[in-house]
Task: structure prediction
Amino acid sequence: MKLKIGIADDHDIVRQGLKQIISDTDNMVVMGEASNGQELIEMVRKKPFDVLLLDISMPGRSGIEILKQLKIEKPNLPVLMLSMHPEDQYAIRALKAGASGYISKDSASEVLVEAIRKAAQGRKYISPSLAEKLAGTISHDVDEKAHESLSDREFQILVMLAQGKSVSEIGKELFLSVKTISTYRRRILDKMNLKNNAELTHYAIEHELV
Result:
């Protein structure tokens, strides 16, 4: 029996690359593709899958938001998060939300295949570097950093602001109004006790979030 894999990524070239890796693996087959969160939810409701590959940066709802809905509707379905972002940014949040692993898109094909196999067995794929970070988060003598108090959406917008994107650019990318993004920005600054975007960017660079 081949493992039935679903892929959700808004970039066609990425989906094609993932399909090629999976098609070159004997016991795996791609059973469905989605380019956004809603397509993925509908696809999962109609077809049985053994493992899902989900891009963390989807248009509209973030990958973590989609993951949380998937874990409600299909709690036993393993989901591996794919990302262009380094582990420091989203990996721990993704795992806490129920992901079976977090894989960088520039990882070797062998890493992806290993992660899929582990997920299908009900195990989690965690890289050695991520394992160290996870150990740090459960250490009682490590103080919580300011950005760890943010919600997933606030954290996503923090990273985008620190990357130099404007409020209007972020709103367009996330399908939210400029007013809503401005509200999020103010809330982020308040929670982190920062005054402006310059301080926010400095913080993000210092903590290797960008």
Summary: The chain has two domains: 3-137, 146-206.
